[in-house]
């Protein structure tokens, strides 16, 4: 039985928008999502032009996007969505296991990277994973990129920007851990017995040091690198 405290309930399923030019792949993914009451497929696009128009009109929680759409414009669209609609969780889909392509997608804001026709994992599982705060990366790709991210972090470098970042203070790590638990600024302030303004200042400093723009990006990077 699906836990009642997780996103993806029958009365409030995770809303998904799907972008893929390949009709066969699109149908396979759509059927998998529509068979399960925990997800609701709210829209599809089969071209870059159609996707560009509809992703800013529909309301959804997770975007599954083929990076090769158009003339390889999927990554550009993914980044645009993350800037304009940062609340949307994006999962990149690709036929390539190339780790550079995966890193580029993650750098642009994706929380997942799935290789088409992989024997491991499923699109449904990936959607539910990211909707509940996780990440979804095909195993063979994850095996390639995780050591790179970890090694860079050990040398104080954010591999997503290729810049060195200053180490976080103990207080900043504490705040990041609480943010990862889903606590609001007010809740963090109450827990640590400091003012909300002080929390906001620490969060701003964390963003600056890690070269990220959102809480989700900070938490995801911190978890991948073992900071929290």
TrEMBL record:
Domain HTH luxR-type as annotated: residue spans: 161-226
Keyword list, A-Z: DNA-binding, Phosphoprotein, Transcription, Transcription regulation
Modification 4-aspartylphosphate, positions: 66
GO biological process: phosphorelay signal transduction system; regulation of DNA-templated transcription
Keyword Transcription annotated: yes
Superkingdom per UniProt: Bacteria
GO molecular function annotation: DNA binding
Response regulatory domain: residues covered: 15-131
Keyword ATP-binding: no
Name used for this protein in its record: LuxR family transcriptional regulator
Species whose genome carries this gene: Comamonas testosteroni (Pseudomonas testosteroni)
Lineage: Bacteria, Pseudomonadati, Pseudomonadota, Betaproteobacteria, Burkholderiales
């Amino acid at each position: 039985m699906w836990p009642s405290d997780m996103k993806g309930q029958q009365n409030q399923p995770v809303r998904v928008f799907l972008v893929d030019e390949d009709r066969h792949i699109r149908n396979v993914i759509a059927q998998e999502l529509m068979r399960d009451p925990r997800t609701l497929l709210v829209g599809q696009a089969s071209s870059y032009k159609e996707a560009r128009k509809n992703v800013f009109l529909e309301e959804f929680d997770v975007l599954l996007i083929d990076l090769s759409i158009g003339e390889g414009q999927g990554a550009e669209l993914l980044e645009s969505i993350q800037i304009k609609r940062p609340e949307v969780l994006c999962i990149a889909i690709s036929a390539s296991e190339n780790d550079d392509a995966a890193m580029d997608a993650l750098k642009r804001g994706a929380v997942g990277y799935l290789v088409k026709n992989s024997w491991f994992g499923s699109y449904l599982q990936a959607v539910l994973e990211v909707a509940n705060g996780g990440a979804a990366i095909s195993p063979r790709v994850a095996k390639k990129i995780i050591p790179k991210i970890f090694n860079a972090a050990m040398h104080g470098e954010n591999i997503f920007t290729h810049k060195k970042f200053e180490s976080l203070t103990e207080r900043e790590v504490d705040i990041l851990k609480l943010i990862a638990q889903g606590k609001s600024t007010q809740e963090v302030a109450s827990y640590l017995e400091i003012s909300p303004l002080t929390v906001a200042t620490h969060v701003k400093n964390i963003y600056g040091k890690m070269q990220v723009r959102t809480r989700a990006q900070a938490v995801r990077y911190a978890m991948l690198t073992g900071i929290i």
